[in-house]
Amino acid sequence: MNSIYDYKVKNAQGDMESLEKFKGKPLVIVNTASKCGFTPQFEDLQKLYEEYQAEGLQILGFPSAQFNNQEFENQEETMEFCQLNYGVTFPIFAKVDVKGENADPLFKYLVSSQKGLLTEGIKWNFTKFLVDKEGNVVKRYAPQTSPKKIEEDLHTIL
């Protein structure tokens, strides 16, 4: 696989969807959790999405329960939580594993493209990846990095 467009992911309804539909758009891909100390980042991710959506930006959220089981069991609860508490309108996909042998192939690709500070694997919820319009993973952000700090890098790929 050469770019993120080669991957298919399961959407919130449980259907497989090709990431090729996002071709030509800058992306922020983030592993999320509804019950995490970083969960308020949904608010700034939504603001980023609203501000740059007209320029093509897509934010793709992938819930994961791999870190202290901080995600709802039920997909509908996750969706409702994100929409009611943070007004999330960007796509939230089906819950996935983001590390380990059962990690979703997309996340295996993301971490192999942009290694972390001390390790290749994802260490916690809200690890963010910036992807350019050609599907190249150009930067990785730590969980504690505010989505506001992505904005400067985003300008270089819009």
End-to-end separation in angstroms reads: 24 Å
Chain oligomer state: single chain
What is the CA-atom radius of gyration, in angstroms?
Answer: 14 Å
* Order of helix and strand elements from N to C terminus: EEEHEHHEEH
Q: Main beta sheet: strand number and arrangement?
A: 4 strands, mixed
What's the CATH topology label? Answer: Glutaredoxin
Number of helices, counting only DSSP H or I runs of 4 residues or more:
4
- Uncertain segments are none
What class, by secondary structure content? Answer: alpha+beta
Query: How many separate structural domains?
Result: 1
How many β-strands, per DSSP? 6
What overall form do the CA principal axes indicate? Answer: globular
User: What top-tier CATH class fits best?
Assistant: Alpha Beta
Strand order of the largest sheet: 4-3-5-6
Q: Helical proportion?
A: 25-40%
Residue-averaged pLDDT, rounded? 92
CATH superfamily annotation = Glutaredoxin
Q: Can you tell me the CATH architecture?
A: 3-Layer(aba) Sandwich
The proportion of residues in beta strands is 15-25%
